[in-house]
Write a structure and sequence with these properties.
Blueprint lengths: L2 H15 L6 E2 L8 E3 L12 H17 L3 E2 L6 E2 L1 H8 L2
Parallel strand pairs: 1-3, 2-4
Length: about 90
């Protein structure tokens, strides 16, 4: 997961929160061997870490605040920030 993908997830969760017809949100990975190996290592630099943490924490806060039931569909490896996001469901 990179910052751009996390921002997309953040926006998708914001959209879900405002949809009265959505009862359940199920984040899932598109691969079959893993859900997430964590946040992209290229975003673990001194310059990018504050932004990366802000985005990850924003996604987690949105998941925890959603009015819908959330279920993480984890099949395979789920590490780092991906595990934090899955655990927030």
């Amino acid at each position: 997961m990179d910052v751009a993908l996390l921002r997309e997830l953040d926006q998708a969760l914001a959209n879900c929160a405002s949809e009265p017809g959505v009862d359940i949100v199920v984040p899932l990975g598109s691969g079959c061997a893993s859900v997430s190996a964590g946040v992209d290592i290229r975003d673990h630099t001194t310059e990018k870490v504050p932004e990366m943490l802000d985005v990850v924490h924003g996604v987690i806060r949105k998941l925890l605040a959603l009015p819908q039931v959330t279920i993480a569909a984890v099949r395979g490896v789920c590490l780092g920030g991906g595990c934090e996001i899955a655990s927030s469901c």
